Amino acid sequence: MNYFVWDVDPEFLSFGFLHIRWYGLMFLGGFLTGFMLMKWIYIREKQNVKELDSLLLYIMAGAVIGSRLGHVLFYDPVYYFSNPLEILYVWKGGLASHGGAVGVILAIVIFAKRYNKPIMWLLSRATISGTAAAIFVRIGNFFNSEILGTTTNLPWAVIFKRVDLLPRHPVQLYEALSYFCVLLLLIFIYKRVSNDFATKLLPGVFLVALFSARFLVEFAKTEQASYEVVLPITTGQLLSLPYILVGLIWLIWAFKNKKKEI
């Protein structure tokens, strides 16, 4: 069987000391798409659009710092604690979405307090832009030939030639597609329910839908952690469970308090 062979150079452009990678372009594209979605939301709800430039900077900082620390602590702590300076070498790769989620939440809380915005309102709307950004990040992982899937004989398997010659599940694209479905779901809910109920509902839907998708895709992934996990699930699945649980509790709270003001 002839499989699709992926052998794209991770560098989009190299000129002297300047190295632009596809992953960096996807990362930036994700944030810009998220920015445009937040602008649409701000205009739709008659908010101050001028705040968005600052909000973007807060969220980008929270995402990068949180993702990096998440990777260091959850996936390869022994190496980074032995080489602490390399924690700063973000350009070498190593970002964890679970840590990024925490970083973004903290960034939004800090921004909301500084600019006197309702935290719940901002968190709920940020789920839409955050999901859009996550799609682009996974496409960037595909360009980098990283976060590999397990081997398979399925006709849509991909050979990542820069890694080996084994046909694998294109889990990066599985995840990007599942996140796109989550994005459509969030936008659908946001447009169909009242603004007040959307504020209560969207974070719970986001946590359950996105991290359930992540949990399921992990079955086709190779283990990312540098240490052995003694459970029948991967590190990524283990880290997803608390988010799913919080999301379920959040949904129960949202429906119980549907008609109450917050």
Describe this structure in a few short sentences.
The protein is mostly helical and 262 residues long. Helices cover 62% and strands 6% of the residues. The protein has one domain (4-256).
Please specify the SSE layout and strand pairing.
Blueprint: E1 4-6, E2 11-15, E3 18-21, H1 22-44, H2 52-74, H3 77-82, H4 97-114, H5 119-143, E4 158-160, E5 167-168, H6 171-192, H7 195-217, H8 235-256
Helix pairs in contact: 1-2, 1-5, 2-4, 4-5, 5-6, 5-7, 6-7, 7-8
Main attributes?
262 residues, mainly alpha, 3-stranded mixed sheet, two-stranded antiparallel ribbon, 8 helices, 5 strands
Description:
With 262 residues, this protein is mainly α. It has helices at 22-44, 52-74, 77-82, 97-114, 119-143, 171-192, 195-217, 235-256; strands spanning 4-6, 11-15, 18-21, 158-160, 167-168. The protein contains 8 helices and 5 strands; from the N terminus they run E-E-E-H-H-H-H-H-E-E-H-H-H. The model has no long low-confidence stretch (mean pLDDT 90). It has one domain. Helices cover 62% and strands 6% of the residues.
Number of helices: 8
Q: What is the count of distinct domains?
A: 1
What is the residue-mean pLDDT, rounded to a whole number? 90
Radius of gyration: 19 Å
Please indicate the percent range of residues in DSSP E strands (runs of 2 or more): 5-15%
